[in-house]
Write a structure and sequence with these properties.
Blueprint (H helix, E strand, L loop, with lengths): L13 H17 L8 E2 L1 H8 L3 H13 L3 E4 L3 E4 L4 H23 L8 H10 L10 H18 L3 H18 L6 H19 L3 H38 L1
Antiparallel strand pairs: 1-3, 2-3
C-alpha cells in the first residue's frame, strides 16, 4: 500500500477533515497508490493523515458505501478487487441510457434543440489546433459530454442514474485519456456523434455512440490490467 500523506494543516472542522480524508483516499484509489486488494487499518490511515480515528472512520464508511472499500471487522479494511464483470454491466447500463437519450434528442423538432447541444458543439466540433491535449482535462470533458447528452433528453431520473453509473466507472474510464491517440480520437468521434444528432440521423448517431463507448471500454480494460501489473511490480521492492 502506498499513500500520499497530506501536508500538515491547521485545526479543521470535523466535517471538513472527514471530507478531506475521503477525497485523498479516493484519489489514492483512482491513482493506484492504493491498489485493489490492499489491506490497511483505521490506525494506519489516521497516522498518515495526522487525524483522529473518527473522521477517518467516516471517510472509510463513505467509500465503502460507494463500493470502493470492504470492511472486515476483525482485520481492518481492504480496497475492493477489480470486478471486470461488474464494470461490463455498468457499461451496458450506460449504453442503454445514452442510446435512448440520442433517440429522444433526434425526435425533437429543430426549434426545440437544447442549448446543451450547442455548448457541446462549441467544445468538440473545433479545429485540431483548438483541441486540448491535457488528458485529465479531456477525461473530465468526455464524462461531461456523455452526461450532458442524457441530461438534454429531459428525463431527470435517467440523468441521475447515468451520473451514478459514470461515477462508478470513472476509476477505469479516465485511463483512456492517458494515451495521446485516444485524446484525438475522442474529439473526432464526439464531433461525428454530435453531427449526426444535429442532422437528426438517429440510427447513425446511435451506432457511432455505441461503437465509441465499446472501443473505449476495451481500451481501458487493457490499460487497467497493464497499470495494475506495473503498480504491483513497483510495490514489490517496498514489500521486500
Amino acid at each position: 500500500m502506498q499513500l500520499v500523506s497530506p501536508a500538515k494543516r491547521g485545526k479543521e472542522r470535523p466535517e471538513n477533515l472527514a471530507e478531506r480524508i475521503y477525497l485523498q483516499l479516493k484519489d489514492d484509489i483512482f491513482e493506484f497508490r492504493l491498489l485493489p486488494g490492499d489491506r490497511f487499518s483505521e490506525g494506519e490511515i489516521a497516522e498518515r493523515m495526522a487525524a483522529s480515528r473518527t473522521p477517518v472512520r467516516q471517510a472509510l464508511y463513505r467509500l465503502e458505501r460507494e463500493g470502493y472499500l470492504e470492511v472486515y471487522f476483525r482485520s481492518g479494511w481492504q480496497v475492493k478487487p477489480f470486478d471486470f464483470a461488474h464494470f461490463e454491466e455498468l457499461y451496458e447500463v450506460r449504453i442503454v441510457l445514452e442510446l435512448e437519450a440520442v433517440k429522444r434528442l433526434c425526435e425533437r423538432p429543430n426549434e426545440e434543440l437544447p442549448d446543451a447541444l450547442e455548448q457541446l458543439r462549441r467544445t468538440w466540433m473545433v479545429q485540431p489546433e483548438q483541441r486540448l491535449q491535457d488528458g485529465r482535462e479531456v477525461s473530465r470533458l468526455d464524462e461531461r459530454f456523455h452526461c450532458q447528452l442524457v441530461e438534454a433528453a429531459g428525463n431527470r431520473e435517467m440523468a441521475r442514474l447515468h451520473a451514478e453509473v459514470s461515477e462508478k466507472i470513472r476509476i477505469i474510464r479516465r485511463l483512456d485519456f492517458t494515451q495521446e491517440p485516444r485524446v484525438e480520437l475522442t474529439y473526432e468521434e464526439h464531433a461525428r456523434i454530435l453531427g449526426a444528432i444535429l442532422s437528426r440521423r438517429c440510427e447513425e448517431a446511435q451506432l457511432l455512440l455505441k461503437t465509441h463507448i465499446e472501443v473505449s471500454k476495451a481500451e481501458v480494460r487493457k490499460i487497467t490490467l497493464h497499470m495494475l501489473h506495473s503498480a504491483r511490480q513497483r510495490a514489490l521492492p517496498a514489500q521486500g
